[in-house]
Design goal:
Blueprint lengths: L8 H17 L22 E9 L3 E19 L2 E18 L2 E14 L5 E14 L2 E17 L12 E16 L2 E25 L2 E11 L5 E7 L4 E8 L5 E11 L1 H37 L12 H16 L11
Antiparallel strand pairs: 1-2, 1-12, 2-3, 3-4, 4-5, 5-6, 6-7, 7-8, 8-9, 9-10, 10-11, 11-12
Amino acid sequence: MQSITYQNKEVVFLFASMLILCSLFHSLNAVSGEIKTADLPKNLIGDKWKFSVDYIGPYEMLGTMTVEITNDSYLISQVGSNYECYEDTINGAGQVYGENYSGTWTWFQMEYDVNPDFSWAKIATTVNSTFTYAGNTHTSFYQEEVTYNPPLEVDKGFPLSAGKGWSAAATETKTTMFTIDGKTEQYTNVTTQTSEFFVVRTDMTTVSAGKFETFVVRRTYPDGTYEESYYSPKAHGDVKWITYDITGKMTSTAELLEYTLVSEGFPIIYILTGIIVAAVVIVGGLVYFLFRRSKKSQFVPKPPERVQVNTEKRARRIPRICNVIKLLPEPFSVICP
């Protein structure tokens, strides 16, 4: 395997920022909360959230990411165990800015969280970028697959309340491959992933998507870095994140731009559709009834024409019949005199 030689520290910073963003978006469906208390949300296929992201460093990475639940019963098998998971599809794109530095990046990630407790089972990420530094253009490709055994219980703290804390631990297997200007390096690391969670406070948080009652949850990593997520029960997820280095300096942020919940949108549509259909049926039936009634009132049947009876022929017909009847035995013969 050919080792990569980094020509400048900016390239290293780029991949460091990608790792930070990757860590940030692993938390999309993690810790949650509501004022006083919050139960675990029940998400549905089609639920979608769009975020702005900003990495703060020697240069700035700006962009947007969209998270959508595309499956709620995806089966993950690992180390002899099967887990039914939510499948979260994450797509993102953006630009890189800095002194003598510019470029673009795209992001694709599949995340599998155990249904219904959102424990992390598997995460697969792909990042492509093209950037120019000091007049030289570079291309990069980054791919990472992470599995947790057992699934990492990042949401074990539900139902949440201010002051509540918990911990999560799992064996993490991470396989990474990245390529810069055609030179590739790949490796696999197996470590124990541990994190400490604490609900710091409740907050009224304003982001582009609106104003939300949130719980601020701090997650601390073994290396001393930490992040704060702002969870909204109304949005069924975090509406804001901030990551910090070990000195407390902010390294990245993300906030909710817009979201769509199937559980909020579709029932209203169904109800309105039902009302409209019922109204159409009722009005249509009433119109048809009135139409039939008006047609009936306009139709006056003519009285039957009186049939002129020829009494002379009738008189001749009766004796003829009686003559036949008289030939019959009694009691028929007594009908005619």
